[in-house]
Amino acid sequence: KNPSNIRYSTAGLYRVYLQSLIARGRIDSISKFVRVRPTLNAAFTIEPSFDDIDDYEAPLVATLKNATISATTHNWQAPGGVLSSSTDSLPTLTYNTPGTYTVTYVADNGKQTQTVTQSIVVKPNTGMRTFTNVKFGINSADATLGCYFSTKLRQIFKSSEINNTNGSKVDLCFFGLSNNFTFNKFLSPDSVQLFTFPAITNASHTNYVNVQESCGCGFFTISQFDNAVNGTALNAITVPTMGGGTIFSNALIPRVVLFANQLGKKGAIKIKQFVNDGLQSYILCDIKVQKD
């Protein structure tokens, strides 16, 4: 008839038994399980979206990844940012202007309250993405190194990896005939089937200037490439909608190839090396492109 208190010092699943003596010496019993949760431990990380994780530039969208143990209520504060919710366990957070910001999280479970903070630095928007040391394989290296690149997905692809989902996002394709590097050119994704590659489903179109010295359409120098720190610097690039598909060799190093993808974003590819490795030969490049 009298209540009893039970204290558990370790989290876990416990079984509680109750036995009672009833009429005529008969013993009756019942049992129930009690789950004891761990002590409150508040923790979270700020994880930028795929579009922002490589540069942390504004506008930046992030998810507040909650790793808290045993919280029943959540409260977020993010001055300078826009929260999707201040009480959800996994809200999203948007910063529209650059700066250094602090996110505060308060976790509660009815017995304890803990507060933790994280800081994030949001950089000014350059309007440009930069990729370094990208390897484009020659034709015989497609199956191992890949010949396709997506500036949207920020990744090199082999032709065998292209599918209905990622095919439309490929905007750079390279064809190198051999490790002698006497016949090379960047191809539009919608024309790769003309150069031994399988056709790309839903392929986009990219215009190039493979050989600037014979284009007659202006010149974007190595120095301009190296010094370009924002997307407006690439506005100086002129890419004709026709032509520009001239082949190039390894006679000129480095070489800058210009392009404009189907979205109208301009970019430049600096070929730094022609690496002769037999059937696994490749060109080593840096790429700068205006953001979508």
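(the above was protein one; protein two follows)
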Amino acid sequence: MSRQTVLIADDDRSICTVLSQAVRRSGFLAVTTDDANELLQWVQEGKGDLIITDVLMPKGNGLEFLPRLKEARPGLPVIVISANNTLMTAVKANELGAFEYFPKPFDLDALMGCVERTLAPVPAEILNAPPPAITDGHGMEKALVGRSAAMQEVYKTLAKLISVDLTVMLNGESGTGKELIARTLHNLGSRKDNPFVAINMAAMPRELVESELFGHEKGAFTGAVARKAGKFEQAEGGTLFLDEIGDMPPEAQTKLLRTLQEKEYVPVGGSQPRKTDVRIVSATHRDLLELVKRGDFREDLFFRLNVVPIIVPPLRQRQEDIESLAMHCLAKAQRQGLPEKHLSADAITALQAHSWPGNVRELENLLFRLAALHSD
């Protein structure tokens, strides 16, 4: 049996050398090029068992060639690598049928692990399955700022979640941007034309949580002078973001679990169930498994909500993103009518040295304050 061949396309000779050596160490053949047209010709001639391609090359764009590669060889897996490592690069690569996406600088061991798994025997019905359809992002890459390795992991996960309707749990410290990630997931997905509704469990009296979530009928309790639509009804067809889910009271947890299981709920004071179709995205800064052990959070609800967990990194783990985040905040402040301001190199160094216990929210508040109150 002949050895399988990996086609490598990148205009950076050092990357081609590193990848080809790693591929050969893994027992495969490697062929390199810096020309996307030559790569396409190889594929059309039936050469290669897997492709590793850069996005931007002088002789062609890897992403633009993806549909032609997939048309020529529908079952040929393509791994995309790119220094243009934004959320939308990951989304576009996934949309166009890439098997996997790795931002530069990539982890060579992780990439080669993907190569070895990909070239293992795979059932034809799986290998030839069409790529999932992902809707246009409409510029939403501007919402999530940062190209750090920690954020790249978030981007890769989001790119794969856009075309599926799975329940997502965002876990991260306060101020890390969990709601922004939830909104981005909504705005890029198939539910984008329907409502995005958010509710913070820690920001309301416990006795009102059920009414806020499920609504109530007129006369359901003292002060209920009219029927009120709950968040589930308001979010119908869209996304319901349950922030600080760890603060949900036990009685509301039970009702939420039944709603997720049965796809229906009964408003407070009502008797007739209402059908519901919403995507649930939850968030917490607390250790839910610890709450489960203490009996403060239902284990069955935890597993219903934690289908796809995403760890949102704190800002202290994204130090290389601080400069771009700061510039983004100043530009946002200017759009809101505050004076234009610029940061010196010393100022950026000072920002990068701070630990940011309040995370991105603390950084944004500081930059808005500087823009508003300081003349220079």
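Reviewer note on protein two: The chain has a mean pLDDT of 86.
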